[in-house]
Amino acid sequence: MSAPPSEDLVQQWESEQARLRGLVVEQDTEQWQKNPDFLGLERVGGVDLSFIKGDEVNACAQLVVLSYPQLEVLYEDSQMVALTAPYIAGFLAFRETPFLLEALKRLEKNKPELMPQVVFVDGNGLFHYREFGLACHLGVLSGLPCVGVAKNLLQVEGVYKNEEHQSQIAALQKGGDSFPLTASSGKVLGKALRSSQKSSKPVYVSVGHKIGLDTAVRLTHSCCRYRVPEPIRQADCRSREYLRVHFPAAET
């Protein structure tokens, strides 16, 4: 796992990202997305992977489905998985997506009535080195609308964590306020969102698939009780709890 990846593998992954990038839909596609109150949206999903400290191979892949707008957990799936692909910056999806897709397929097979109408991903979508992050990858392969929500700023395409960025964050007065993350090309790749009145630290929202950016930002804000949207927060909490219960000797 620690050996540097081969150039062939990186080229193969870049080629696959470029191919799949052409399939991303960056606009609203569902009727509920076009409603100011998201009328018709009843189930929102969240996915995450949690690792045992010091172990980069074994992880808990987590899927949760919450009711909307109540944000109560309707379904959860915790599964220990062994990652086979190496970690390479910009290619996280090749490590994680297969296991998240498996979780969605299990749900579709066992309780199809609980399939989420949109999935929140702990990571980036179009706000990515090649405009194809984990949320895009999962969205295209699952066919579901996906939103990428990252806790840390990916410094990419001319977007930097500099003085200007910090002053833009300081100008976010209330929950729901946002500003665009604009690439050197002029394209808006995502938005920094003050997701909660309780937290002045923003999250970084970008389109994954089958949803427009403004809709993704509004939806993210509507799913936040705290800084991180509830579907991702619940996926993170439950995967960590699973590791605590099943691997009590290991620190997570």
UniProtKB/TrEMBL annotation:
<dbReference type="GO" id="GO:0003727">
    <property type="term" value="F:single-stranded RNA binding"/>
</dbReference>
<keyword id="KW-0694">RNA-binding</keyword>
<dbReference type="GO" id="GO:0016891">
    <property type="term" value="F:RNA endonuclease activity producing 5'-phosphomonoesters, hydrolytic mechanism"/>
</dbReference>
<protein>
    <recommendedName>
        <fullName>Endonuclease V</fullName>
    </recommendedName>
</protein>
<dbReference type="InterPro" id="IPR007581">
    <property type="entry name" value="Endonuclease-V"/>
</dbReference>
<dbReference type="GO" id="GO:0005730">
    <property type="term" value="C:nucleolus"/>
</dbReference>
<dbReference type="GO" id="GO:0046872">
    <property type="term" value="F:metal ion binding"/>
</dbReference>
<keyword id="KW-0479">Metal-binding</keyword>
<keyword id="KW-0540">Nuclease</keyword>
<dbReference type="Pfam" id="PF04493">
    <property type="entry name" value="Endonuclease_5"/>
</dbReference>
<comment type="similarity">
    <text>Belongs to the endonuclease V family.</text>
</comment>
<dbReference type="GO" id="GO:0006281">
    <property type="term" value="P:DNA repair"/>
</dbReference>
<keyword id="KW-0460">Magnesium</keyword>
<dbReference type="GO" id="GO:0003677">
    <property type="term" value="F:DNA binding"/>
</dbReference>
<keyword id="KW-0238">DNA-binding</keyword>
<keyword id="KW-0378">Hydrolase</keyword>
<comment type="subunit">
    <text>Monomer. Interacts with PABPC1; the interaction is RNA-dependent and stimulates ENDOV activity.</text>
</comment>
<keyword id="KW-0963">Cytoplasm</keyword>
<keyword id="KW-0539">Nucleus</keyword>
<keyword id="KW-0255">Endonuclease</keyword>
<dbReference type="GO" id="GO:0010494">
    <property type="term" value="C:cytoplasmic stress granule"/>
</dbReference>
<comment type="function">
    <text>Endoribonuclease that specifically cleaves inosine-containing RNAs: cleaves RNA at the second phosphodiester bond 3' to inosine. Active against both single-stranded and double-stranded RNAs. Has strong preference for single-stranded RNAs (ssRNAs) toward double-stranded RNAs (dsRNAs). Cleaves mRNAs and tRNAs containing inosine. Also able to cleave structure-specific dsRNA substrates containing the specific sites 5'-IIUI-3' and 5'-UIUU-3'.</text>
</comment>
